[in-house]
Amino acid sequence: MLVFGEPFETSHGTVLITVTRQGRRGGPGRAIGLYSITEDGVTWTPAVDQGRIALIGVCTGFVAAALATLAVVHRPPWPNLSERALIAKAESAKHRR
Known about the structure:
- The structure is a single chain.
- The longest helix has 25 residues, at 50-74.
- The termini are far apart.
- The chain folds into two domains: 2-46, no CATH class; 50-96.
- Strands 1, 2, 3, 4 and 5 form a five-stranded antiparallel β-sheet that branches.
- It has helices spanning 50-74, 83-96; strands at 2-4, 8-9, 15-21, 30-37, 42-46.
- The protein is an alpha+beta fold.
């Protein structure tokens, strides 16, 4: 349910009305936006939750880091250094001389 705040008039004659969404079971509400009423008309300015945007960015970074770690653990970027590979490399170096 939307809750409209008390109108507030600024020194320039603009009337501001806040709009919030009522919280669950009477809990604190969440800001939705602001109506600005001037001589030219009415404008709506939505509220932006910076905390939520930051949380999404941090979670995206953690997911990217986890996927990159899993990719490196599954198949490391360096070549296979098994005993057989090292022996084959040494023999091929002997034949090139």
